[in-house]
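=== RUN LOG ===
request id: a7f3
mode: sequence -> structure
chains: 1
length: 120
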Amino acid sequence: MKHNLSAILILGAVITGCSTPGMIKPASHTVTRHYEKPTPQKEAAFNETMGKVALSTQEDLRYKKLALDTPEKKAWFKQLLYRLWDRQITRAQFIQEGLQKYPDRAYEFRFIANGFQKYS
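=== RESULT ===
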């Protein structure tokens, strides 16, 4: 669990860039947020992928840090990442849900979605 939190904190801490205004707008309706918890095996594989994505953000100067400054925000973000990785949601749904909480971070959510696609 400590490893999971570390990877999330790394990912949140290294987000450094700006979004392109008007590229993706958050939806005005609520998205269904089904969540199937990971098995220990899936969690280990997810953590490995999450670590790779987190490290890749350090190389992108446009990537801005997400304000994951509460336990609730960190848990929400980890769950959103897992749902993307586990294909419980699509890339578009991941971006849409992210933009509902962070409407000015389209670039960052696209970057993360691309990273999970690349490293999964």
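=== NOTES ===
The radius of gyration is 13 Å.
Residues 39-120 form one domain.
=== END ===
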